[in-house]
Amino acid sequence: MNSPNLIILYVKDPATSAGFYRSLLGREPVAEAPNFVAFALDGGFTLGLWRLSKVTPQPSATGSRAEIAFMVPGENGVSTLYEDWRKRQLPIAQDLTDMDFGPTFVVLDPDGHRLRVCEPDK
Fold it and tell me: How many domains does the chain have?
């Protein structure tokens, strides 16, 4: 069976986005080109950052209709990361709050992509 292993975000400037994700992920890209940057993620996934003006075919819609979620294990793991990202002055779209699935918050990357932090399912 085929399994997805690449997440691609369309970005205005891959170099700017790469700097953001380099700091956020604490790792270097595995591929860098003027129009595309890729980061290897744990679990066999890759995060690609593709210059929007070079995407073919061009996307038919804009806006935030999806999220990338970071599941952080451990007691107070979500709140600890919230404080770290808040101190880094990342744009917070949703402050730390409790929802049906537990504590969570959302920050935005330079292109407005939503990055949610929450606890793993138990």
Answer: 2
Q: Which residues of the chain are under the pLDDT cut of 70? A: 1, 62-64, 122
Q: How much is the CA Rg of the chain, to the nearest whole Å?
A: 15
Q: Which domain holds residue 38?
A: 1-60
Global pTM value:
0.89
DSSP per-residue letters across 8-42 = EEEES-HHHHHHHHHHHHTS--SEEETTEEEEE-G
CATH number at residue 35: 3.30.720.120
- Residue 6, judged by CB atoms within 10 A of its CB (0-12, 13-18, 19+), counts as exposed
The angle subtended at Cα 89 by Cα 87 and Cα 93, nearest 5°, is 115
